[in-house]
Amino acid sequence: MLALPPEDRSLSPYTGWTRAHWEAAADALLSAVEPYRSPDHSLITLPGRASWSGCDGLEGYARTFLLAAFRVAGGGDPAALQPYAEGLATGPLGTWPEIKDHFQPMVEAASIALGLRLTRPWLWDRLDPGVQARVVGWLEEALRRKHVDNNWHLFPVTVAGFLQELGHDTQAVIDGGLDRIERWYEGDGWYRDGEGRNFDHYNGWAMHLYPALHAHLGGPAEPYATRLRAFLGNYGSAFDANGSPVYQGRSLIYRFAAAAPVWAGELLGASPYSPGTARRLASGALRHFLADGRALSPQGLLTLGWYGPHEPSLQPYSGAASPYWASKGFLGLLLPADHPAWTSVEEPGPVERADQAIGLPGPGLLVHSTAADGLVRLVNHGSDHQPPGGGPDDPLYQRLAYSSRTGPATPADNHLGLVIDGEVTPRGPITPLGAGPGWAASSSRPTPSTLIESVSMVRGPHEVRLHRVTAPSGTVVRQTGWALPEAAGEELTGALLPLHGFTRSSVMESPEGTVFGPDALVPCLEGECAGPGSVFVCVATLSAAPAPPPPVYDPVGATVTWHDGTVQDLPL
């Protein structure tokens, strides 16, 4: 448990947290890593799993340094920088791994360069010239080496920004990196993270964050401020009333780094929210993970998971210090203490004001939330994280739907597949077919000779899923619903009801459970194709409040009638 100030429910009626809570949380996270510094202070090697890069000590140094930089630049005690200053004297001499092509130190170089730039009066300007020269020499390799063709382009940009401030001619590197991400902008404020349809939280804590920081420190504001405003216009609706972001995509161990773009909007004056709403979103995310220490080890260290340790939430590059990219969530400390984002009374977040059903044609997503329970669902018709030519389904990307209170399970939840030779086909690469208010659609080819065209329509806690399946007669079609822990009880309920085409139902057990609890149950529907273009319709419900009656499907008119009498045509 963190030692935190008393809650202030007058200034912050929704979370109780103020700037003082953010400062105390930052200080506690920094204090917890102190026992793991190397004698020369150039590495922080935390206990636990090693990443595949072998750069864990450097990760520990760089990512906590970023947190210390936000704290000091925002008015904290400059003494917090002293061990990091000492580490700079020896790190470039060999304790830090050399920056090479496609190698993790390039990522950490960006955090170090950003931290040095933000704290220059207290740290860099006081360093011995010989130390400065060695650090510059180490950082310069980030400008020469090849990097992964995705958000990594922004790491040399960040390093180059610092070196340019020191008088180096690095504008070509800055322009090249920013130009590269242009090809991945899909509209609605969303970027693909590299080639392929990769849409996830990296939009907020990488694709928008680094250009926003570059602009904040003197670079061009446009088009980044305009895009950030567009992104935040729908992104804020993806935070649960309990503060949790939606559990979807990779690197989820960064947790409250999801608050970074909300603060970036305040830094650039590009937020669509009132200052009180912005702080409510950011403080809600931080409080969700830290208020009761649920994301911390007994030693006060961030764990490798969502709450506690959770292996399926990890990637091969995840190491014991990796979660400290959550430091990005503390970006708001750069705002002065008298900024309206800190002094305004908290106001409700978007999901607390009204039901949301926001279709995003660019990424092919549908953000769907309900005010009665504050729960957020993300209906997915566009993000697949597939390599060229396809590959195995990624459970963190290719489910039909995700939420802020459920996680992927095995057997696959929220999946539509064909049963061929006893095996369920993957979803495969997704082709988005459009999205609008309350609906989204896509197609996929689970095998070269089969086609599934799908559309989702949402209202309240319900999602109608219609699939038109082109496959041989007699092919079994299997649809699954939300994976819920057996002990969910009345706190969270789910249902998967057949409306057309499905002829039998069952419940499958998932002994490994999900990130939200063990022993999950996955509802399942099955039916057989009667010929090309067979239609299957069901309704998937997820709610933490009493749900209205499910909708009715008319196969003749291809319409859905909702509980309030509203009749809608299915876009497919």
Automatic annotation (TrEMBL):
Signal peptide: none annotated. Residues 18-348 form the DUF2264 domain. Pfam families: DUF2264. PANTHER family: LINALOOL DEHYDRATASE_ISOMERASE DOMAIN-CONTAINING PROTEIN. This is DUF2264 domain-containing protein.
